[in-house]
Specification:
This protein is mainly β. Helix content is 4%, strand content 46%. A hairpin with a 4-residue loop joins strand 25 and strand 26 (288-295). The longest helix is centred in the first third of the chain and has 13 residues, at 2-14. It starts with a helix and ends in a 7-residue tail after the last strand.
């Protein structure tokens, strides 16, 4: 694992860039390796796409009639982007918009009418179905899930891991045979990171992150289409602004590594279709939205 992780770390330092001059105060979201969505300092939602040459990012405001107090969730469903977000200020409602080209977006639509959140939700696609997970409203630390075939009509909310809660918005990714959920705990030890799997309609028991890892925020997750491995990345705890990464596979967790030249005050975002093509986006210490990759996150554990 050490050799492949070293390649990931070097790629992060060599390929770093900024999406555009807008600032953000929360975690960004990624879809595949070519789009980053984020909440800007004006509470509006923006998307930056990698141009055809792969050399630069071009950002634009998402004009769909809404904004958010937190970072949005972004996924690619067949031929279109699906964007989901929490409402402005104390509005716990969740909304969605979609776009084929990333330029023209459908008007915002409220979704999951029986659910609400006080943080940004998490979104992924597995076998053609959208899955959404979010923290409850205010003091409700439970996490809830819903699914949709098109992003507009959603199933009623259901509880996820019933014996554990979070104080932040969770992370969600698809693996070959299901979903993996990551979240920051609420009790002692505060900031402990947890993970659970969703397979065949059932949640597994929760497991702790490697090396007693802690964070003030949820991790970022990317799953792999082949095998059941995934890569988790997260910001350090309190004043520790480093980003750490670890790979989980059939043999358990690999070594914990630190990404060089990647520092942040919020959760990062990660996307990729294969284990050797992973891309990262994060809030820079200057509040810019930064990107890096491709990364390598594969070894004999996969």
């Amino acid at each position: 694992m050490h050799a492949t992780v070293a390649a990931l770390v070097l790629a992060a330092s060599l390929m770093t860039g900024t999406t555009d001059p807008m600032a953000t105060s929360d975690r960004p979201a990624m879809a595949q390796d070519t789009a980053v969505a984020y909440r800007a300092s004006d509470s509006g939602l923006y998307i930056s796409e990698l141009d055809g040459s792969g050399e630069g990012w071009h950002g634009r405001h998402i004009d769909m009639g809404g904004g958010s107090s937190h970072g949005p969730a972004l996924a690619r469903l067949v031929d279109r982007y699906i964007l989901v977000w929490k409402g402005l200020r104390d509005d716990p409602r969740m909304f969605m918009s979609s776009s084929v080209d990333g330029k023209t977006w459908t008007p915002q639509v409220r979704i999951v009418w029986d659910g609400g959140t006080s943080h940004g939700p998490a979104l992924t696609v597995h076998r053609g179905l959208l899955y959404l997970v979010w923290k409850g409203i205010g003091a409700d630390t439970n996490m809830y899930m819903s699914s949709s075939v098109d992003g507009r009509t959603w199933a009623p909310q259901q509880g996820t891991v019933p014996f554990s809660g979070t104080s932040e918005g969770p992370a969600l990714a698809a693996t070959a045979d299901g979903l993996v959920l990551g979240w920051k705990g609420t009790g002692y030890p505060d900031g402990q990171l947890h993970f659970a799997h969703y397979r065949a309609g059932k949640w597994s028991d929760a497991s702790w992150a490697p090396d007693n890892a802690h964070s003030d925020h949820a991790p970022a997750l990317v799953g792999f289409a082949e095998g059941n491995g995934y890569c988790a990345l997260w910001k350090g705890r309190s004043t520790d602004q480093n980003v750490y990464a670890a790979h989980s596979g059939t043999q358990g967790w690999g070594p914990l590594v630190t990404l060089r030249d990647v520092t942040t005050g919020a959760s990062p975002a990660v996307a990729g279709d294969t284990a050797d093509q992973i891309f990262l986006a994060w809030k820079g210490t200057d509040d810019s939205v930064r990107t890096g990759g491709p990364f390598v996150c594969s070894d004999s554990n996969l």
